Amino acid sequence: MNEERAGGSMTSEADNGQFLTFTLQSEEYGIEILKVQEIKGFSKITPIPNAPAYIRGVMNLRGTVVPIIDLRCRFSMSEKEYDQFTCIIVVNIGTRVVGLIVDTVSDVLNIPHDSIADPPDLATGGDNAFITGMGKLDERIVMLLDTSRLVNMAAIAGIDTAA
C-alpha cells in the first residue's frame, strides 16, 4: 500500500523492514518482526543432557516443547545472571518454534532498506554468517540477524528426539 507524505514524495511499506530489537551486552540487535511469535519473561527451562552449551534446555509453551537458546552463549559473550529484564523471544523458523534468551527487548523499528548496509567482511565469515546487515538510524547501529542461520537446526533436531 502506498502512502503519500506531506512533501509529495511517495513511499511504500515495502521500502521499510520491521525489526524487533533487543540488547546483548549493551549492543543492539534486530530480527525480522514477521519471524517473532511472542515475547515471554524468563521462565523455567528444563536442561537437556549433552546438548550444546548455548542450548539451555526446553520449555513447555502451551503444550509445545520449545528449545531455548541463550544468545549470549551462542555469540561467545560473557555470561550474565538472568534477571527481571531477561526475555525469551519465541521465533518461528520454518515449521519449528525456538526461544531466544536476550538481555532485554527494546523496540520495534522500521528501518528503510536503503539504511541497511552490508556487514563488514570480517563479520560474515565462519560462525558470524547470521549477521545479514547493519541498520543505520541516526547514530545507532542495529545488527540484523537471520534467525534461520543463527539456529543450528541439526542441534535442535537432536533436542527434539531427546525431549
Key attributes of the depicted protein:
five-stranded mixed β-sheet; six-stranded mixed β-sheet; 163 residues; mainly beta; disordered N terminus
Please report the distance between the alpha carbons of the first and last residues: 44 Å
Q: How many H/I helices?
A: 3
Please tally the β strands and state the result: 13
Strand order of the largest sheet: 10-3-4-13-12-11
User: What structural category arises from helix and sheet content?
Assistant: mainly beta
Largest beta-sheet characterization = 6 strands, mixed
Write the element-wise H/E pattern from the N-terminal end onward.
Answer: EEEEEEEHEEEEEEHH
Q: What coarse outline follows from CA principal-axis ratios? A: globular
**Mean pLDDT over all positions:** 84
Rg calculated over all Cα atoms? 17 Å
**Approximate helicity band:** 10-25%
Poorly predicted residue ranges: 1-11
Strand content: over 45%
Question: Layout of SSEs?
Answer:
Blueprint: E1 2-4, E2 10-12, E3 16-24, E4 27-32, E5 36-41, E6 55-61, E7 64-70, H1 71-74, E8 87-93, E9 96-102, E10 104-112, E11 116-117, E12 131-137, E13 140-145, H2 147-150, H3 153-162
Parallel strand pairs: 4-13, 7-9
Antiparallel strand pairs: 1-2, 3-4, 3-10, 5-8, 6-7, 8-9, 11-12, 12-13
Summarize the structure.
This protein is mostly beta strands and 163 residues long. The protein has three helices and 13 strands. 11% of the residues lie in helices and 48% in strands.
Task: Give your account of this protein's structure.
With 163 residues, the protein is mainly β. It is 11% helix and 48% strand. It contains three helices and 13 strands, in the order βββββββαββββββαα. The protein has helices spanning 71-74, 147-150, 153-162, and strands at residues 2-4, 10-12, 16-24, 27-32, 36-41, 55-61, 64-70, 87-93, 96-102, 104-112, 116-117, 131-137, 140-145. The strands form three sheets. It has a six-stranded mixed beta sheet with strand order 10-3-4-13-12-11. The longest helix has 10 residues, at 153-162. The chain is globular and about 45 Å long. The model is unreliable at 1-11 (pLDDT under 50).
